[in-house]
Amino acid sequence: MFSLPQKESPAREPKPIGVTTRSDRLRVLLTCSPRWRIHEQFLQRCQQDDLAREQVEWIVVSPDEMRAEVLEQAEVMVCGHFVREWFMHCRRLRWIQFLGAGIEGSLSEELLASDIILTNASGVHAIPIAEHVFGMMLCFARGLHRCVRQQIRAEWNRDGFGEQVRELHGATLGVVGLGAIGEAVAQRGKAFGMRVLAMRRRVQQPPDCADVLLPPERLHDLLRESDCVVLCVPLTSETRGMVGEPELRQMRRDAILINISRGQVVDQSALIRALQEGWIAGACLDVFDPEPLPADSPLWTMSSVIISPHVSGVTPHYGARAAEIFVTNLHAYLDGDVGAMVNVVDKQAGY
User: Fold this and answer.
1) Which is catalytic among the residues 125, 262, 321, 331?
2) Which of these is catalytic: 40, 57, 72, 291?
3) pLDDT tens digits along 77-91
4) Is 70 helix (H, G, I), strand (E, B) or coil?
5) CATH number at residue 150
6) Annotated catalytic, 291?
7) Same domain, residue pair 107 and 30
8) Pick the catalytic residue: 220, 252, 310, 317?
């Protein structure tokens, strides 16, 4: 792991945002885990933009190799996670572009209290996660998870299939959280002929992808009516533990729960009990609390559960899509037009 010297936080240098006529190149620090394997694709897409190619001086460093003198140089940072200890060395930093949508693990008190602009990569996961959700949903609806288990045992067994399978067409889809991912899920639900109920904090006229839009205080109404509930909310103080025993008991006995948000949004012990006692028909889970999911968790061996190891957002196009967001924001930043930047994080809300 990296090791940075401890020292008093220096005064942050006052500097106007965006100078299109600047004589120096904008120093942008790109740091993300090599395991992501996205930095090359990210940089290639950025190099296709004239402004980025001409105005940006890239500093590419792995998080494990981070040094104080590198942090001190950057005016802009692009990262997957911002380590709290870095803050005291970032005296020139004015903007952080995160490579992920959920950044709750990076929001230290110091960062929230600072004047550093935070933008996330909301929307970059929408297509792969929505497709993952429907892969799980179709797998459960058509009994394909049972077929795979039987295939492993070389077992030909059609008993009970007629009672177990269902159609998505005409079913009710409940989408909890109607951000970029939630909207992509809802759009695909409409394409399958589903009735879509959606929940989000700000309730206005329902978008085309939703038949009914509900506020958070009507979550139980959504749960009672839905054949399939998909959790698409960010992890905040308001959504932590959002789905516990009271909520699970509101769901239909033939309903399934799909969680692609964060494991902490669901009370996992209550969910295990709900599955064991038949409060709900099943669950499709990509996120857990804790992660990795312990080998002795009952979820692994439940026939009514489909598990994926937090991979719903994986896509071969991740780096290019994240770069599109960065380039859009780079143009606005260099023009001094913060209001034109996209995916600006609401520091109070946490996303």
Assistant:
1) 262
2) 291
3) 999 999 999 999 999
4) helix
5) 3.40.50.720
6) yes
7) yes
8) 310
